[in-house]
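User: Here's a structure from my thesis project, written as structure tokens. My advisor, Dr. K., wants to see whether a designed sequence matches the one we expressed. Can you design one independently, without my sequence as a hint?
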């Protein structure tokens, strides 16, 4: 297994679940940040949201976004891929319903035509696990692996 493949396996271990990130978008060069629930699947993060939300409107005018939590950080391009029941969303919908099961239907109305999914296709990122850091360029399918200790004191 090469370093890129190892990094992808680590990504799955860390984020192939309900994981909250701060999502940064921008409009007219003014940044906007909010926490969102995400799910990682096959090189992409997915977000369940509403087409008329500020984040979706900003993504549609500028697809460049960042995700951050702790020292994990990713940059990528985000796209509104439409309503959950669209045929092309069938596979990811089943995964999102399962991973977000405790709240998916309680907080989302699939009868509302404005419900949608945002897909974040990753350009690059940094993450770590078990004393190893990974810096990944997803476009070139290259990754660096190095010793990394999270030694920052987090205050809430």
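Assistant: Designed independently from the structure alone:
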């Amino acid at each position: 297994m090469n370093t890129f493949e190892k990094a992808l396996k680590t990504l799955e271990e860390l984020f192939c679940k309900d994981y909250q990130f701060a999502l940064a978008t921008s409009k007219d060069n003014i940044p906007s940040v909010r926490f969102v629930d995400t799910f990682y699947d096959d090189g992409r993060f997915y977000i369940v949201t509403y087409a008329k939300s500020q984040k979706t409107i900003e993504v549609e005018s500028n697809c460049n976004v960042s995700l951050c939590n702790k020292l994990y950080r990713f940059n990528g391009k985000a796209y509104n891929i439409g309503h959950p029941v669209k045929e092309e969303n069938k596979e990811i919908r089943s995964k999102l319903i399962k991973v977000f099961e405790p709240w998916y239907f309680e907080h989302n109305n699939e009868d509302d035509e404005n419900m949608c999914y945002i897909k974040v296709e990753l350009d690059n990122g940094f993450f770590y696990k078990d004393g190893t850091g990974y810096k990944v360029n997803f476009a070139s399918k290259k990754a660096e692996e190095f010793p990394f200790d999270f030694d920052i004191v987090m205050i809430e």
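When you compare it with your expressed construct, this may help: The chain has a mean pLDDT of 96.
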